[in-house]
Amino acid sequence: MPSSVRLQEMIRVIRSARTQGEERGIIQRECADIRAQFRQGDNGERSHSLAKLLYVHMLGYPAHFGQMECVRLIASTRYSEKRIGYLGAMMLLDENQDASLLITNSIKNDLSHNSQYVQSLALCTLACMGSAEMCRDLAPEIERLLRASNSYIKKKATLCAVHIIRKVPELAELFTPSARSLLSEKNHGVLHGAVVLITELCEHNPGTLDQFRKAVPELVQIMKGLVTSSYSPEHNVAGISDPFLQVRILRLLRILGHNNDTASDAMNDLLAQVATNTDSSKTAGSAVLYETVLTIMDINSESGLRVLAVNILGRFLLNNDRNIRYISMTSLQKIVQTDHNAVQRHRGTIVDCLKDQDTSVKRRALELSLALVSAVNIRSMMKELLIFLSTCPPELRSHTTSGIFNAAERYSPSKRWHIDTILHVLTTAGGDVRDETVPNLIQLITTASELHCYTVHKLYRALVKDISQQSLVQVACWCIGEYGDLLLKGECEEIEPVQVTEDDVLDALETVLQSHMSSPATRGFALTATMKLSTRITDNVDRIRSIVSIYGSCIDLELQQRAVEYNALFKKYDHMRAAVLERMPVMDKNSPGHTNGDTSGEIKEPDPSKPKPVEAGLLSEPASQVCDLLDLLDGTDTPLQPSPAPTSNPTTTSSADLLDLLGGLEPTPVLTETVYEKNGLSLKIQCDKQTETEVTVTLIGSNSAQNDITNFTLQAAVPKSVQLQMKAPSGNVIPAHGLGQVTQTVVLNNPNKVSLKMRIRVSFSNQGAVHQDTVQIDSFPTQASQTSVSPL
Amino acid sequence: MRGGAGGIQLFSMRFLLLFSRQGKLRLQKWFTALSDRDKKKIIRDVMQMVLVRPPKSCNFLQWRDLKIVYRRYASLYFCCGLEQGDNELITLELLHRYVELLDQYFGNVCELDIIFNFEKAYFILDEFIIGGEVQETSKASVAKSMEEADSLQETMEEYLNKPTY
């Protein structure tokens, strides 16, 4: 078989493989062949083998062993070998490969080759994979080609220069002089490259940007020529003369006109002309118009021009082509803050785009709609957004719900509307809302006290209908627990009253408790609500008692704990129950520092050593303390405090045992004991720190006598296995009348954990008399053991 | 990473991919240096995203920090990754121009042409785009250059039989 066909044959064979394994086998054989070929050296077959390897590479198989072959082929004198060699270099070598440096010399030589097609290969490859080092090496060559060569080479050299500048920004200066003169070229390819090069130069250096502003009139001329020229078949696309070049020029004008009045003025007329005259029935024209609009919006254009631009975008919104609608919305999104009113005029069309079939379009429409919501249009916009929510694709749902909540928070016309909206969202898309929604909604409900009756009725009905949406169920349970009495009364102005019996309500809560759809957190809410109802209903308290006692043996630790404690509330503390389960006061929202995320009404750890925040929530202490404790339950926006903190003075009521749960968290007072008192000197020992093997104590000497105590010294002795370290005393004079103290810290290291004893010799002078005494300390004051938090 | 003067956005093409409806890669051109692993991951992700799009969809997608512009021609998807400041509509025109060039060269180009003559597809691309930017806006010019370059191939008879290697 002639070698020339072998590549095609190999491709055919590979394609005929029926399994991945078969393909791998074929590839392995071919690669072995290729490797053998490479080893054989120059035999006219090398380019075929490299081509085969490149195909194999494209299929995803490793081809590193071909790198050196690329280097060799590039250095060949045959064009076909160079061509495939350079292609191989672009595919297999990038700046991260060491072998790439080896082709620098070949590229250098080829840049001065007498065939422009060889030069072209070198230029193209350098622009594709040239590393910073290679670029530095070859930059002067490229600069020379920019100035001296024919159009074919010039256009490639300019783009190569662009690559060099991207890799080595300092080399920008090298190309700046030649870049300007390229603008006078007639060849479109060169012109296009020149505009790209100048754009790149301006991006890298604000000084250069200033320089090139002088070129604005020239650029305007070129554009005018393109826009008004008669039909030129060579560059024409759908009636637009060279849209690629037009777009690049417009982009450069944007950069030059940005923040600069003179430049912006100079291009004003041109932009107006392009905006009005370009035929946008095909993509090419729309592309030019689009770029024009972007430029108008980004420079200091006159207001008339801006209005023109926004109107073009508005027209785009009505275009049948989805792509045009999409990019129109992207652009409107960019200017919605700065030109809000102009964009508002197109709100209707934008909202219609919410109904488009295409997800990309829907997403854009959603973003834009949310940005357009204002106090004026909130009701109608929310209607549309809620309709959208019920049919939107799943990937957009959580974004939509957060957007709706934000909008509702900022612009809701009334509390009732706000609550209704949130409820609607929870019913439609409860699974896609953020965790903070539940506490936020609860907080909102408490503040709308006139609506408690309405809210609880609405929530009850929603609960009865469907208990699958956890956030909704949680809020409903909480409300029923809080406002169950209003629910049972049956009268409510804003809703047709429905007779709800106590049994109905308890049925609903029990359904939630028993359903496997309910999450543990939800069941917690339901149980607490059931408990709270015990003070709000009259006939069925026994039913509540039995529910609560059943859950006392629930497998879920959290529920079990709650149930056991509620049981205790019934049995031992029935006298307190009413007070404990009283209606909660309004919670204040702290606007900054939302830290609701963690709490969200879900108590995750059934950790018995922590005080149950649920219990904390039941305590109906005077408002301020209650609010602190409520932090833990409902996550109001005051920053979450670590659990020990909100126990400021919980022992004010007589319910010491219940509150013992919190008692152990009081900061433990450090205990001192007086060990010696005589002659006016009083010596106390204070336990500072105690671990299993180490005790730190401070000896405090104070003086109640009339005269100062002087030469006060302490010496200490401890059992053999204990190590003693006495720090320096604070002084040796103790002022009279208790006006001062001397302290001395002693560290005792007790590795064998023997019982600690210490003998202290005290010696001091008072009124000229020297006293010496010995004190034996047999037991050290330890930190009081905390009242353990035990289930009641 | 390129710096911008005065907050102007960056524009550049990051990659150009051709792949079939079955997810087979037919051409890959990268305009930034990436590891093989990264390239493979991008190809996988982009293919996955594009192949599930229903027929009459918008041709533009947002993916990570890039805009993806794609269009389907018969059994091949032509797909570009652009940076944020790029003009998607002109990129559609660019993809179309590339297809026209291929069509002109191969005469009624089909996927098989590109499979069996992949290196030529690359050569044509390299006459049209350099470093992610258009180098020649005239169709005729590109065609002429290809013709002349091909004539330099040493083994003419084999070459004219269409399979080059």
TrEMBL record, chain A:
The keyword Lyase does not apply. The keyword Ligase does not apply. Residues 585-616, 633-654 are annotated as: Disordered. Residues 668-781 form the GAE domain. It is a peripheral membrane protein. It is found in: Cytoplasmic vesicle membrane; Endomembrane system; Golgi apparatus. This is AP-1 complex subunit gamma.
TrEMBL record, chain B:
It is a peripheral membrane protein. GO terms for cellular component: AP-1 adaptor complex; clathrin-coated pit. Transmembrane segments: none annotated. GO terms for molecular function: clathrin adaptor activity. Its main location: membrane. PANTHER family: ADAPTOR COMPLEXES SMALL SUBUNIT FAMILY. Belongs to the adaptor complexes small subunit family. This is AP complex subunit sigma. It comes from Cyprinus carpio carpio. The lineage of its organism: Eukaryota, Metazoa, Chordata, Craniata, Vertebrata.
